[in-house]
Amino acid sequence: MPSLYDQNITMRAEHLFEVMSSQRFLQLQGLNNEIPFFIFPFKPEEQNEIEMMGKGLIKRLQQKGVHILKINLYDLSLSLLKKRGVLEQIIQNEPTFNRRELFEDLQGVLDTEKHIVPEISRRLSEQLFDILFLTGVGEIYPYMRSHNILNNLQSVLKDHPTVLWFPGKYTFT
Fold first, then answer.
1. What confidence tens digit (pLDDT) does each residue in 60-72 have?
2. What angle do CA 171, 155, 126 make, to 5 degrees?
3. Within 10 A of 84 (CB to CB), how many other CB atoms are there?
């Protein structure tokens, strides 16, 4: 049987719906005190189809009474850059930056521990939800790394399952 990664999108959507709507998943049963982070890998070239699948999945889950909070990390990053008053400056100066300078500037302004996680935490406190979806991972790479975000979220997200939508194969090391 092919892995979930290799199945067609309809089969993956059905599998995700079955898992995410189950009481076992929602009540974090069987995790043995593990942090409830789940990675959903997909082929990067499927990004648009996966986005559409995700929207449909959210609707189906909501119809079943499961509330999703979706945070797109790219949109969150842009929001923080605007809020801190540096987005326009970065856009204007981007042609003169070399890649390393841009990388260092963005990493400093969008520090995961100091800026990203507190903003996610703020959003978590503003809405009731059952599952957190983290999307936009491909768009923030390499300025932010998904494993770094998840590591820093461990203290904030213990009571709700979190699904990271990951473009690419995800391997454990």
1. 999 999 999 999 9
2. 110
3. 12
Q: Given phi > 0 = left and psi -120 to 50 = alpha, else beta, which region is 119? A: alpha
Q: Can you tell me the distance from the alpha carbon of 172 to that of 136, in angstroms, rounded to the nearest whole number?
A: 21
Q: What is the structure's pLDDT at 169? A: 86
Cβ-proximal residues to 171 (8 Å cutoff; 6+ apart), any chain? none
Burial of residue 46 (number of CB atoms within 10 Å: 0-12, 13-18, 19+): middle
- Count of beta carbons in the 10 Å neighbourhood of residue 131: 21
DSSP codes of every residue in 127-160? S--SEEEEE-HHHHTTTS-HHHHHHHHTTT-SSS
In this structure, the dihedral spanned by the alpha carbons of residues 136, 139, 141 and 146, taken in order and rounded to 10 degrees, is: 0
